Amino acid sequence: MPGDLISAYLADLRRRLPAGITDEVADGLAEASEQHLAAGLDVHDSAQAAVAEFGDARTLAAEFTRHAPGRRAARILLASGPAAGACWGAALIGARAWTWPVPDGARLALGAVLLLAAAVLAGAATGKRSYRRTRLAVPGGIALIALDLTMITAVLTIGPAITWVLTTAAAASLTRIGLALRLVRRVLAH
Predict the structure, then answer these.
(1) Do 6 and 25 fall into the same domain?
(2) Which of 5, 55, 52, 20 is nearest to 131 (CA)?
(3) Whole-angstrom Cα distance, residue 135 to residue 120?
(4) CB neighbour list of residue 37: distance below 8 Å, 6 or more residues apart
(5) Cβ distance 138 to 117 under 8 Å?
(6) Which of 98, 101, 110, 128 is CA-nearest to residue 173?
(7) Packing angle between helix 43-54 and helix 2-16, nearest 10 degrees?
(8) Residues 87 and 149 grouped into a single domain
(9) pLDDT of 1 over the 60 cut
(10) 3-class secondary structure, 128
């Protein structure tokens, strides 16, 4: 049955891609099949020709994954890391942050969250076969927002004095917070 061929193809895509994308592909397949029917192919051959036009489901899903908003967002957020880290490194060294009354557990927790966020974002950025994996950009972005807010709050509450270097680091964090919010919203919209 031609419907079975297209249904099986779409079922394979549904396992790999979000419903919205699969629905768009379903519309395209139906349109292609109708065009082949209008050109004189029978129902079975028109379904086969439509599926052949779209290519292997795994390959099609990989192309959608390659261009996934989450993958792009994760790469942008990872790229922002060295600049924000350098700003904070210079600011904290200049302010002699190792003398601040911060419990060791809090320092370790911040470091652990930073490493986890980087690992999650790296997973989203390098995902080639799983569209769902690219959506890890959302928790990674939220973790960066939390880290940046924590750093700004710590400097304002614990820091002995606000210097231009600390202000620059806070500005870098605020910029990244805005960027992360925009990117996370974009990923959630798809």
Answers:
(1) yes
(2) 20
(3) 10
(4) 43, 46
(5) no
(6) 110
(7) 20
(8) yes
(9) no
(10) coil
Residues 45 and 135 in one domain: no
| Average pLDDT over all residues of the chain | 92
pTM over 0.85: no
pLDDT, tens digit, for every residue of 120-167?
A: 999 999 988 888 899 999 999 999 999 999 999 999 898 888 889 999
Distance of alpha carbon 16 from alpha carbon 25, whole angstroms: 13
What's the pLDDT at 2?
A: 52
**Total domains, the chain:** 2
User: What is the pLDDT, as a whole number, of residue 148?
Assistant: 97
Q: Count CA atoms within 13 Å of residue 180 on its CB side.
A: 28
CA-to-CA distance for 106 and 49, rounded, in angstroms?
60
* Tally of residues, the chain: 190
Domain containing residue 45: 2-64
Mean pLDDT of 63-69: 91
**Alpha carbons 89 and 171: distance in angstroms, whole number:** 14
Contact of 177 with 148, CB cutoff 8 Å = yes
Unique residue bearing structure tokens 């990117």 = 183
